[in-house]
Amino acid sequence: MSRSRWPLAAALLVLTALAARVPLHAAVVSAWAVGDGEKIFRYQDDSPLKQRNSVWDGSTVRLKGLYNEVLAFQVIVEADGLGARAVEVAVEPPVHAASGKAIGAPGPPLYGPGGTIEVFSEHYIRVRRPTQPLWFYGSEASAPKRMTGWIPSVLIPPDARAGRGGFPIDIPPTSEEVNRRQNTLEVIPAATRQNQGFWVDLHLPRDRSCPAGLYQGRVKVYEAGRTVAEIKLEVTLLPHYLPDENHSNIWLYGSVGVVNDYFPELSREEAERMLKFESHRHRIDLVGGSAAHTSVFDERMMEDYKPYVDGSAFTPEAGYSGPGQGCGERLFTVGCYGSITNRAMADEASTRRESDLWVQWFEANAPGVVYFWYMIDEPGPVQFPWIKEHAGWVHDNPGPGKRLPVFTTREYTEELAEDIDIWAGGRGVNLEQLPALKSQGRDHWFYNGRRPRYGAVILEAEAVDFRVNAWVKYLYGVSTWFLWEGTHWQHNFQGPKGHLHQRVFTEPLTFISWSMNWANGDGVVLYPGRMPFYPEEDRGLNRLLGSIRLKNMRRGQQDYEIMWLAEQKAGRDKVLEIIRSVVPRGLNEVGLDEPVPWSERGDDYDLAREKLLGLLGK
User: Fold this and answer.
1) SS3 (DSSP) at 13
2) Of the candidates 106, 125, 103, the residue with the CA atom closest to the CA atom of residue 42
3) Domains identified in the chain and CATH numbers
4) Distances in whole angstroms, Cα of residue 510 to Cα of each of 127, 286, 327, 516
5) Strand, coil or helix: what is 87?
6) Total-model pTM
7) What is the pLDDT of residues 99-137, one digit of tens each?
């Protein structure tokens, strides 16, 4: 085409676009809100939640919570097919009309007494090949409803590197739009809308200087520096306090050594503190990846670790603020994943000597902590004679070491009934044996994720998969959920890529075996703010990044505390009646080939939570 014909072609393009009412420039077209229990995919334009949901009536976000609780919601910004430039979301602190007090006033300290507001951009990971029903869900009948597409996962702080989630962010054109624009003469059809989620954490006050009652604020959406949408925000602060102490446990493993590799500017001690602080703020015990958990007993090492179990590490004086302030970790694993079994506890004499030392230290320094010897991981029948021998060395110990509980990741097995003190089943919990085990001072936990019995731990899981496990724990009186890994940034050694670091921001696959068993997102609930191995993915932050999965783990833990408070007021039966309206069955009451019996909608949990709050009274 000659240059003289370009103006005519351009004019025809403009007229055609105007007739179709399609913008010729990138633009935000709308914004709406949804709770923390949903995942809105990037190209999902048919969600009924857009019109109304548990926190959104079409114009206002309404939240309700307790002192010391963290509330969360998402702002979904819709852009046309051309995308949008320089988009960001800001939250004006909600103000109490009578007192003028504000929740989340800007400024330090983080998670301070008056509350804090944090806003993150949501990073999407594309899944083309779904996780197979191996360890993650029992059968196709229990699979998540949507398993492919651009799934929101990582939550990126505003001060991240430009172009890597830092504010403001550009919403790129849809892939279809890019293809169309390769030919300048092609008429642009109606643009495909796309979503960009922003996550908001609202930390409610820790003290009573902010009065209970209604607080009002606004959420603003900016595009290229101008306001393009406003959403009203109302927060009702109830006159009750969410305990700092957790009455149920999430045990998450995270490797200090691996994390330290990604943050070369930090010392090992700084990397460990970063891991501990971030997990503690989400009401999780990140235990097992420190030197204290993988080494033989060492008095000096345990004295260095002691602040994490007595709570002094989680105080403002130690640099910590937020939920769980002053509360220590509730769990400690001796020799995580069997790391000292064949070293310090390889024969009878050394096992008795080592177990004596551990028991004496904990009884003197941390008597409230549940400590145990992680003897072996996921044993099969061939290891049973070996387990009996090693467990006998502990249980027959004439010294204090006989009180060291023996732990393994296996569902209760009659043949080992006298040998194992704490079980963690990957297929659930033997509910028939649980009362008897507890009466003997033993226990049975559940391990990782297994739909339909409890939530899956894969990227394609619903947001509430990580929330429902706390409800299952309360329903059946299970104390602990153990998740095998939260910082699985290097491929597992059982597979062909064990020597490689993962592209956790772009590749969904995080677990692969030699037999090509796939798992998307397994083992990753925390993400690295630095990426020395793939610099193009580096966010430029010397701290950990959260995820929607991590936030729903916290939401579940907070739900459990509300259940605990409600039980003190109204009794367990009334609490169970509300829980069963959402989670009628779980664990081994559900066959692995059944559909999921519990709700997969965040709204249902929110409405049940509202009823639980009602039991607390005014």
Assistant:
1) helix
2) 125
3) 25-241 (2.60.40.10), 249-605 (no CATH)
4) 12, 20, 33, 12
5) strand
6) 0.93
7) 999 998 655 566 667 789 999 999 999 999 999 887 899
